[in-house]
## 1
Amino acid sequence: MKALEGVQILDMTHVQSGPTCTQLLAWFGADVIKVERPGVGDATRGQLRDLPDVDSLYFTMLNHNKRSVTLNTKSDKGKEIFVKLIETCDVLVENFAPGAMDRMGFSWERIHEINPRIIYASIKGFGPGPYEDCKVYENVAQCTGGSASTTGFLDGPPTVTGAQIGDSGTGLHLALGIVTALYHREHSGIGQRVTAAMQDGVLNLCRVKLRDQQRLQHGPLTEYSQYGQGIEFGDATPRAGNDSGGGQPGWILKCKGWETDPNAYVYFITQAAVWGNVCDIIGRPEWKEEPGYATPPERLDKISQIFDAIEEWTKTKTKLEVMEICNPLNIPCGPILSMRELAEEPSLRQTGTIVEVDHPERGKYLTVGNPVKLSNSVSQVTRSPLLGEHTDEILADVLGLSAEEIAAAKSAGAV
Ligand code: CAO
């Protein structure tokens, strides 16, 4: 039995943030019923298509293990069916633009009245305040949540990251809120409202930068390479390039082949505890004892020069050779792995983190499986549903509608 078996999720999510959340819940065993507009569906089905008339990878990779029902929740008959689904389900999740559910006639008060045990979970761009009515996409959240102002190089513009911390990051936060509310319901018997704002989710992931903002009031941030370079700090946490962000200096260094391979690089950390090992492998054993190099505070103004010396060594090795040499010596480092390399990595296939899925219209494709592993609730990734694939099945089995009632809903254009 899966951890969330028996939990029914009424999934009104679309695009990326909400679907990330409900996909996770589905992987843990919840029955996720994705509600989509008849004939239209989640907009991502048709976005960034690589094959004509086939659900995009954008959609398929965010909607595994779900069932799809089409329902026009703005029509009278559709509303009737929607009320029945609210009565039946444990959780309703949505990430529509602010006010969309209210405009549909389903405020939290109304939903709670229909089913006091239901948990109603939402993602919006912003929490209550001046921007609460705004529509928000990934990079807006990265920019307004503190990520962009602290990402990039000191002499360059604010930069967004490839990791979807605004969308997928907030989806993860919401999933935790939902299971927490389900746990609370075990004791209280009552559902509650769960909200996660994308700005808040990004800020939570950037909390070390708010830490640095406050440290700035008491002096320069000595672990930032700008300190070693003698560049003055301004009044806000600066962009720190590839600095490690912790107390142990780190940087991205070139490896053998960097001239032609854009990913022939390694992240290298000069952790204080293994400084001697670093000195030995790069052929500078004298730095172990030399005044100016022997202790971390002495090295702070020479970080760039030290990484230049380490890079002279890493340039003679491939990134994987660097990893093989450093790991036994406890020197933390990480090769820069491309998406191609990750897709081909056998160990990720073995753990189910990269999975091959078969889809009736597009054939085989790769996806990222459940990154959270439960020993008694192993995730099996099943393909995303076609639009409305489970409409009849859900109306009949979940809601108990007769064949005549289903036919009537269809002829009224509700499903
Ligand atoms: N039946 C009938 N109507 C439906 C429906 C259904 N099954 N499903 C959706 N609709 C309607 C909605 O009610 C809404 O109608 P109104 O505008 O009349 O209220 C309409 O479809 C469109 O919904 P939307 O405004 O949410 O969609 P959008 O494409 O205009 O905006 C987005 C997309 C993502 C910007 C917006 O939903 C949003 O800000 N969401 C919250 C933040 C978020 O999750 N962003 C991350 C997105 S991933 O990058």
## 2
Amino acid sequence: MSILITGGAGYIGSHTCVELISAGYDILVVDNFSNSCAESLRRVEQITGKSIKFYEADVCDKSALRIIFSENNIDAVIHFAGYKAVGESVEKPMMYYENNLMSTVSLIDVMEKYGVRNLVFSSSATVYAGDNPMPLTEDMKLGAINPYGKTKLFIEEILRDLCSAKDNWCVALLRYFNPIGAHKSGLIGESPKGIPNNLMPYISQVAVGKLQRLNVFGDDYDTRDGTGSRDYIHVVDLAKGHVKAIQWAINNTGCEAFNLGTGKGTTVLELRNAFVQVTGMDVPYAIAPRRAGDLAEVYALPAKAKDVLGWEAELDISRMCEDAWRWQSNNPMGYEIDNTIDILK
Ligand code: UD1
């Protein structure tokens, strides 16, 4: 069974490559390294002991996609490739719409031409409207508030329309909650460019001394300690969810959304405190104003993924902190420093 992974060099993509290979799948990766680097794939090879076939290409480029599909016997596709920074999407909406929507439309077109109709799409909990009660279930009201979230929502709609029109397609829309942590080897992990926007990479960069202190965005929410609460999920659990979803997509038809979360909320201070306890590192923090667009709490009901896919998250917050720190402390500069070392060798 051969799976094409778009954006396979990225954070979630690289962890999914490892889990697919471990589950016995043949994989090939297409990535243009716009927000990732080839080093992550080299590390996946190191972890799995398998070499990875990869194409450096843009998924918007249909002629490149045609070459990939004609040169390989692809059974199914996992589509990760896309821009993902919320703030940047507000500043450059057209860049997000063009890249994220065009790549998906091009991919669908080429898949259809080559008779490949099983797809897993990398969606996000950000597609849910902000006024839903918690926990979130897949049938709740949708409505994203920033262009990044809207690209995820629009792509979900496109894929639903596709499956309504063509009953031989099968698409799993995976709505991720907050992926954190890293592979236990410490070889692959999240390597954000510039100052991180998300909480865990920020905490670990404070711990490693790259950033001075954590700004806690608001302490007056209606939560246990007043700070925002999220459903953090270990990236390896998330990656395993993709293995289950690809099995489902290969054996079914239709379009279904699945929440991939743990079902448990953890506040900013709880995550910071767990990190300090597990790692013994200092993470100074200050209370800062709320961040625009943030909700008090977001967490999933992951029952559908358990019932239909047979998947459930297993790793707890301590493990997420331990693994995030192993990655960060072994790679203080993310993948960047190692690229330099490679050049020097
Ligand atoms: C964010 C995005 C979401 C995206 C997801 C990808 C926003 C509004 N949402 O989710 O669309 O799919 O990342 O992982 O940007 N926090 C701090 N200090 C920080 C950073 C974060 O206090 O320096 C707090 C936030 O206020 C929030 C929690 O930590 O309560 C988690 O934030 P973050 O990691 O950015 O994730 P989300 O906002 O849930």
## 3
Amino acid sequence: MKEKAIDGKVIRVLQGDITEQEVDAIVNAANSKLLGGGGVDGAIHRAGGGEIMKECDLIRKEQGGCPTGQAVATTAGKLSADYVIHTAGPVWTGGDRGEDYLLGSCHRESIRIAGEKGCISMAFPGISIGAYRFPTERAAGIAIETAAEELEKSSLEEVRFVLFDSKSYDIYAQALDKLEK
Ligand code: AR6
């Protein structure tokens, strides 16, 4: 585990399973249709139970889903968190289709929504670094820098990044080291 204090708040990077985190909100690396899928999305729906998809179905009916770079909140069902914040990360197609901006936006919007819900702590997985093939180093830099900027303005006290495998953990931990704060 690695952590850095920012104005009395903290960013943590750790290796583990996001469904087991004891935080107020966990973020899901969803798709824009909120239809569920593999990876961390599958793990969150499996562990949280059918209530989460019921709310995703409603959001899909009301607003068509969640555009790339945006985020929406649902219950966390059986998980210990109070909310799952679903964000649709960009698919990496080489970097010239606004992927960096959209990935930053995923983190900004998720943190904003967690703050609106009154959360004190939240956990992110590595958004877009799996099936969506975003280069992990580049994603880690954007994720950590955006979290640091947003944390300063937010009522949140902790933003945690939970990486499943040791290679991704090392890369996010290095990005936290590089953060100039
Ligand atoms: N806890 C933490 N991280 C996890 C877990 C877990 N339980 N399970 C997997 N990971 P991905 P994406 C890691 O593919 O690239 C889905 O089908 C995984 O090892 O889940 O944003 C959605 O429905 C990887 O490092 O998300 C979308 O269609 C990271 O989570 C699409 O995939 C993200 O990998 C989203 O793709």
